[in-house]
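During the reporting period, our protein records have gained a structure token line. One record among many is quoted in full directly below:
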Amino acid sequence: MDINLFKAALPLGGLYIADPSTARCPEPSPEAMALTVVLRQCGLSLSPDAIMAVANLPADEIAQMADVLKDIYKIGDNWAPLVKGWLPPTGESAADHFATLFTNLLPACLRPDGRVLECGHFIPDGTFDLSRYNGCPFCGKPFVLSSDIRTDQGSRLRQLRLMTHADMEERFVQLLSSAAPLDATMTEVVSNMAKSLHIPAGTDIPVRETVCVLTAVLDKSGRLAEMEPLYRTPADVLRYAWYSVTSSLTLESPKSRYRQIRNLYYDDPAAAEAECDRLHFRFSRTQGRIFAGWLDRMELTAEQMCENMNPRRGMWVRLIRALRLNDYARRKNLSRLTEVLDLFYRHDYVTWAGQLHRLVSVPDVLLPVLAQRPGTFSRGLFAAMLHFGAEKVTKEFAKVADKVPLNLLLSLSNNAAAYFLPIGSTRIVTVRNRIHDIPVNPLLRNYTEEQRRDMARRVTEIYLAAISARFAAESHTEGATIYIAPELYSIPVPVGDRSATVQDASYALPGQTFDVEGNDVRIFLHWGKGLPAQPMDMDISCALLKEDGSCYVCAYFQLSGPGVRHSGDIRHIPDQVGTAEYINLDIARLLRNGVVYAVFTSNAYSDGSIDPSVAVGWMDSRYPMSVSDATGVAYDPSTVSHMVRIARENVTKGLAFGVLDLRAHKIIWLEMPFDGRNIESLSLPMLLAYLDRLRNKTCIGEVLAAKAEAQHLVTVDSPGDADEAYTSAADALKIF
């Protein structure tokens, strides 16, 4: 059983079995029956062909499958919160905490009646009702753990289809060939696939971030030299070097990262410096020798290589030292590397950007030069239209639009209307998924409203023409059939909102909606798995927005409110098994109280960013969901609608991960990082603006419909009758 491919298939909606047997099994084995039970506990079922394939598997492979599923859904971990049967409020107040603090400062002989807990804190009588707690209500340290879970409360089962080795190889090539950067989940999928599958010869990998992911996998297995054909520019080498120390696929200034880390550890300068020290480039001599050979054998000229290195000159100086390139450049067989470093240090080269800057005042010469690099042209398209006139610029851009990646064209179309508005500001998402307001371009005031509308229309026309031409140029069979799942018409194309969390069991894109079947929604936070016992305070919170514009929250400092309950604030994790917090929302009562939106967030109150072991999500069921009176456990994996892990490269203290629209009975999955120890740091106006932007984006279904029109495909109502079937967001990613 290949565990790596089994894990990779789950987010794709599949159950991996390398070579399934088609023989009919007279009676399922006990192990197969046990796997069925685990699947049902996790809210999963199997397609008929997958059931038959599992029935013929050896017992040890079935047991491995069950273990992976239990690990993903955290079955066997501690799910006990701080409060037992926490739906009825405990009645604790700030006065209880103050009284406990005061009495703990007194000598033992002066204390009133009370009880000393295992953590050493004295709880005076008349404050906290200790019969309601699994731990210390004062310091949040749990004493009672429980791996029992609630089961069989789910009202839906998600079906997994059978995926063979050939299916995984095909999907691997599709992901590698995608022109759109992969999000954290698909990056994890590609990484798992690369551990077990070989990259087919001649496979074109257009996205440099994907090359980094593959390099990291092959580097660990001693196969780094195999990646040489995919490294075409020095920037590729720098990107991998940065990824190897930060786990971030996006290049950014080290000073910026240092600043972020020091903000996260502002109470602990020593920890901040230790984290910053990890960002230093460190490579073995073997790695340095391999990269030196790659740089020496690149097809670019020495001048072109230096121009490519120039934008990140400071980082290159550090990397040259870390790779010991000056030492290798002294070797006779690396004479070209010597030439490159000599030019680089002497600044004896001309850059394209410098030439472009000198031509800014000569548009007739500037625009053809810009067209030499379509990606750069597209990123400055809007500003160029305002500077030199819409007609002249769009005419030149239309000539090279077919060379611009599809996701970048979509981004231009999505943002054109907002950019050409002369009021307000433009909201942008940075490489760290932070949202910023940018003032509008002052040149917009030089144009009439009709001219500004015409500019946005021209951009949309270029996008529509380019997308139709691109789909028409693809190899296809006219008259073939296509199936487009209805839900794809409500899922925005993942442009500018790349997911930074890992989804191990399912796959959703920011902006995707989930129907709420019952009256209760239960959000949860689990953290600390695999870590030793220590103080570590993570918090789950919920902001409730009322129709009149007011807001109230449910968090560690406000454990209950009308229609909402918190399970208690845990501030210490037990050894290895993790711990959990929950919030329960009663939709009917919240609606009666005038609430229209509920925003789900998780925060790191402790120093540092959100811990990478954190899992957040929500549960929902048409049937009542129970809470254990003995332990307070409320986790039932069969009711989990969506669950994600925080990716390793997260460097924020907060994450808004969902918005419940109470009137529509829908939850919108999103990822909006923000800095701050608690939910009060979240900007609600900015979050609502972010939601509006997601709603106004082009949907995957619309792009697929354009593909069907351009290729003269016939739309059918059943995936089984279609030559091309797109049933989920994961299936649709292959077109971008």
Q: What stands out?
A: The radius of gyration is 28 Å. Residues 501-695 form a domain with the Lipoxygenase-1 fold (CATH 2.60.60.30). The chain has a mean pLDDT of 87.
